[in-house]
What does this fold into?
Amino acid sequence: MLIQDHVGRHVTGHVGHGKIMRIDELFDPNKFKKDDFNLKDDLVFYMNNQPDFYRKHYYPAMCMFKEYYDNDKKINPGAFGKMVERAYKMYRNEFPVQGLNETLDKDIFEEICSEIHKTELENIKQGHYD
It folds into this structure.
């Protein structure tokens, strides 16, 4: 039996861009430009902190990843691709940032999958999904 141990976090929008958000950007998301933040970091943050996405997609994928790890099966970072694509679609709908493409650029997509793989493998080794 798996019990989900997840601390609730509040998603506040774009993170890690290092700039102060202007009041007009707060009320008009189209004024926030895609070059003003790091999409990879923001999407990874979103996946970990958006309650519905985390509960329905991220956590189950990590439990499966742990199962593979426990059975000495290798998992390629690309295995997280469908989850990342789903997250990006939800992210775009929730945060209509001007200039975001319909799909993630291949380089960013691969970076996100690799980061998830690396981070969660370390979490599994430390017993976070036991």
User: Anything to note?
Assistant: The mean pLDDT is 83. The helical segments are 23-27, 39-49, 51-70, 81-94, 106-125. Residues 92 and 101 are 9 Å apart (CA to CA). Residues 23-125 form one domain.
